[in-house]
Structure formats: structure tokens, C-alpha cells
Amino acid sequence: MKINSNTVIIGKRVILVPYKKKHVEKYWKWMQSEEIREQTASEELTIEEEYENQESWYMDEHKITFIILDKDLLLENERDENGYSNENDIKSMIGDVNIFFNEYEDIEGTGELEVMIAEPTSRRKGLAREAISILMGYGVEKLSTKKYIVKIGESNQPSIQMFNSMNFKQIGDVNVFKEILLEFENGDNNTNLLNLKNNDYFKTLIFKNWE
């Protein structure tokens, strides 16, 4: 989506940057993994098709995509005063995080979340949780998101446990695709939803333009 095409969000341990052409080759290499394709319900693409994907996602008004960077993989002399420089995005890329706005959902402004930590050494460190938290707050603040859902393969227990710990609850049974549907509990008068952008952590985030 063009609205985030020049947006960089700097968190405590991760940085979210827009998915640019410079990121495609490494992203494509990640997606050669059968395990990752299975977990993300993705098809194997040629690198040319992945470049086309990147361009289509940029133009798609219903999808927000950010590449996740691990701040620990940026050396001190590679950071600006906010802890970020886009000169070494490739080295610090560890995954991506997305929101899809599906017009067929029952509530307008429903965002379906996805997160992938592709680098094995960056898993189980809380980085996916931080990236999702940032994106959810961004969605409420900038995109007027009213509801969050996530669909996860029933065998992906680490992701299910993470979202359960973030106020997501299962809705219904496992579907024909062997996925479960989780929905964020907005709370009375949407208190949980609004707190995504009003909490102390979100207020510490640094927003800057891609340069």
C-alpha cells in the first residue's frame, strides 16, 4: 500500500521498513524454504515473479507490508541518531509483517495479520511479538482498523501461543485448510483496541521517512 511506502518505524528491538526492490532477492531466497512456504501458505515463485509481487503489493490498496529488521544486526557505526540507517537493510532483514484488509469481512476495517521470522537465529526472541504490536498500533492510529484477525495452521503452535498471549481468542473450529481463526478481543468500549496506540511503548516509537 502506498500509504506506508516511505514509512520507517523504529522500535526497541526491531525496525519496520517498507518492502522495496532492494529487499526482493533475500526475501525470495527465504521463500525457497518448503517449511516457510508451508507455514505461510505460499507458492514457490521465480525471482522474476517475486519482483512482480513486490510491485503489486506496493500498488495494492488492501495490503500493508513491512520488512522486519533486527536492530542487533546493525553495527553502531551503521546507525543514525535514532538507531537506524537503510544502507544495511539486507544484512539485518529477518522477516516481514503484514495487514490485509478483506472487503468480504463482516466488519469494515477488519485487518488480517501475518508475521514471518524467516531467519532461524532470530526466532523465539520476542521479535515477532514486537513487530505485530507495532503494526497493530499503526493500523489503529493511521488506518482506522476496527478489528484484527489471524489465520494460523493448526500445527504452528508457537504462533498460536503467541497470539493467545496477546488477547487473541479462537473463533470456531479448524477449517478445511487446517487453519484456526483467532480474533483480537477489543474489550469493553474498545479499550484494548484503543490501547494499542495509547500505551507507553507505542508512544516511544520513532517514525521517520525512508531516505
TrEMBL record:
Q: Name one Pfam family in it.
A: Acetyltransf_3
Q: Does the keyword Transferase apply?
A: yes
Q: What are the N-acetyltransferase domain coordinates in residue numbering? A: 13-168
- Secretion signal, residue range per the UniProt entry: none
Q: Which Gene3D superfamilies match?
A: 3.40.630.30
Which keywords annotate this record?
A: Acyltransferase, Transferase
Q: InterPro entries from the entry? A: Acyl_CoA_acyltransferase (IPR016181), GNAT_dom (IPR000182), NAT9-like (IPR039135)
Record GO terms (molecular function): N-acetyltransferase activity
| Stated family | Belongs to the acetyltransferase family. GNAT subfamily.
Q: Which PANTHER family match?
A: ALPHA_BETA-TUBULIN-N-ACETYLTRANSFERASE 9 (PTHR13256:SF16), N-ACETYLTRANSFERASE 9 (PTHR13256)
Q: What is this protein called?
A: N-acetyltransferase 9-like protein
